[in-house]
Amino acid sequence: MDAINYRNSLYASGLVILFAVLGIVGGKWLSVAGTLVVFSAIYFFSFPQVSHERLENFLRMFEPPPEEESADATFLRRTILHRGGCTDAPENTLQAIHEAAKQGVAGVEVDLRFTADGIGILLHDDTVDRTTNGHGKVRQMTFDEIRRLDASAQHKSRYKQPVTVPTLEECVQECLKHNLLLFIDCKDSAYQTARLIDGLFKNYPLLYDTAAVCSFNPYVIYRVRAMNPRVITGLTFQKHFISCEGDCITPRRAGFFSYFTPYLDWIFNWMTYSLTWLICGNSFFLINKQSLSRVEVQWWRNLGVHVIPWTVNCEVEMRYFMDHFQVPIITDGF
């Protein structure tokens, strides 16, 4: 987990613990006061979901045109390629987005980070080590330094020509050119993210109907909607987010503090299902495929929120989720 995500998840958990302690120590009056504070915050500082009509227009992008309707076309149109598609091309690159368009999928999911000089680029990790021929933390490198790296250096395809790390704006232009849906997974500073997203959506108004902004960090989503309430947003979620790594098994922390992380997970999960979606006005819930169930999908549908599981790389699972749960999926590729 990124430091900013970890810190804010602890803040959120701490808020719930505070009200619980007030109720236990101070009795019913402090408990009632705490409840009133929470509901007042929801009433005055939350954002409504985007209109049903706008969301329906967005969701139509997951269906093939009537003249092209077939089992294969429907399968592709309910598919979003993870990190732009990292099977046939280097992840989070314009080359990956171009390949995605050629395959006929509905859209791509990409990762947003910021360089030392404040440029928004496509990169998943907080370092350039895994995907490029460089070394170092993204936050400590300028855009020019990262631009000189080869983003295909670690990819199995080994492109003949070096592949550059693109900016988010270049990604936006490429997706609009190919009529692809764009899911932007935000990994960095909430304020920088909100400013960049607001500027891009105003410069490219088509994004309001073709792009969604997502993050593991609810505060990032909140800042985006505070700056531009018209943006469609979603929360990216994984159970055991505070206590475990992405495999939901490997502990993130060792030592004394690790005994408390399962309880913090429980509080964070409770907030996600009870408050976060309402305060942020989210329209999507991107969930780890291991936690997907029919009950989960129906819960969110009843709230007007659409579920998208990630990362679904088994074709049997892909078709099962699409056919039986009627949800699009995020995958690395085919």
What does this structure look like?
This protein has 334 residues and is of the alpha/beta class. The protein is 45% helix and 13% strand. The protein is built from 13 helices and nine strands. Strands 1, 2, 3, 4, 5, 6, 7, 8 and 9 form a nine-stranded mixed sheet that branches. It is globular and about 70 Å long. The N terminus is likely disordered.
In brief:
The chain is of the alpha/beta class and 334 residues long. The protein contains 13 helices and nine strands. It has helices at residues 3-26, 28-45, 52-59, 71-77, 94-103, 143-147, 168-177, 190-203, 207-210, 218-227, 261-280, 294-302, 315-324, and strands at residues 79-81, 107-114, 120-122, 181-186, 211-215, 232-237, 284-288, 306-310, 329-331.
